[in-house]
Specification:
Blueprint: E1 17-20, H1 24-40, E2 55-60, H2 71-92, E3 102-123, E4 130-137, E5 150-153, E6 175-178, E7 184-189, E8 194-199, E9 205-216
Antiparallel strand pairs: 1-7, 2-3, 3-8, 3-9, 4-7, 4-9, 5-6, 5-8
Length: about 220
């Protein structure tokens, strides 16, 4: 008896990407200085006024941080948009016309300065295709104690309805946690819900987050 031919179809996967910023050490001090300068001028803790009740003990800028005409911020924007273009090209190369040039535009961007006891409830980012988090200063965040980490939630809402050895490939956890590594950039699709778990530490946890759209020329 002949064995049937079985074809694997990798449907509805959720791609996440991690990059290490090569120029992090060069940019870090100037970016931190600029962020704290901006923090001193904030009118409120959450200047964006977006989902204020979902955030606790953190400072959030308005949603135009990467628009600042500061050399280090301009360079950071260039690098981050370049990473997003590479990511979008990786997952879409089979769907884009040949010989097109892609551009990523950071339409929203902000910093978070999270202090001892701070957190950000689960949420997603509408009105864009790709999002990112740049760990400028993780502070005392640690993966092993789940302290101040970003957690991403499985979008397959029914994946945990039943568990046996046949579902081991699903992970049996329903989430993915990233180690808070200094200089690291995490890129993820905008529909993916995520949170910043409670952070406990003496140092500030500082990240720059951004939302991007993609255009083809």
């Amino acid at each position: 008896m002949n064995s049937p031919t079985i074809e694997a179809i990798d449907a509805w996967t959720t791609p996440l990407f991690v990059a290490q910023l090569a120029d992090h050490e060069f940019l870090k001090d100037a970016l931190l200085a600029h962020i704290y300068q901006c923090q001193a001028q904030q009118a409120s803790e959450v200047d964006s006024q977006v989902a204020v009740l979902a955030k606790h003990k953190l400072f959030e800028s308005q949603l135009d941080y990467l628009d600042a005409e500061v050399p280090e911020v301009m360079e950071l924007r260039r690098i981050l948009e370049e990473i997003v273009v590479d990511v979008a090209g990786e997952v879409n190369h089979a769907h884009w016309p040949e010989d097109v040039t892609a551009y990523a535009h950071a339409i929203e961007s902000w910093y978070h300065i999270t202090q001892n006891g701070g957190y950000h409830d689960a949420h997603s980012h509408p009105n864009c295709s790709w999002c990112g988090i740049y760990y400028l200063e993780p502070g005392d965040a640690t993966l092993d104690q789940r302290n101040g980490i970003n957690r991403f939630y499985d979008p397959r809402v029914n994946a945990e309805h039943y568990a046996d050895p046949g579902t081991a490939y699903l992970g049996n956890q329903g989430f993915w946690d990233f180690a808070p590594t200094e200089g690291q950039v995490v890129i993820f699709p905008s529909y993916l819900k995520h949170s910043a778990l409670p952070y406990f530490g003496q140092k500030d946890r500082v990240v720059v987050a951004f939302n991007c759209v993609i255009e083809l020329d």
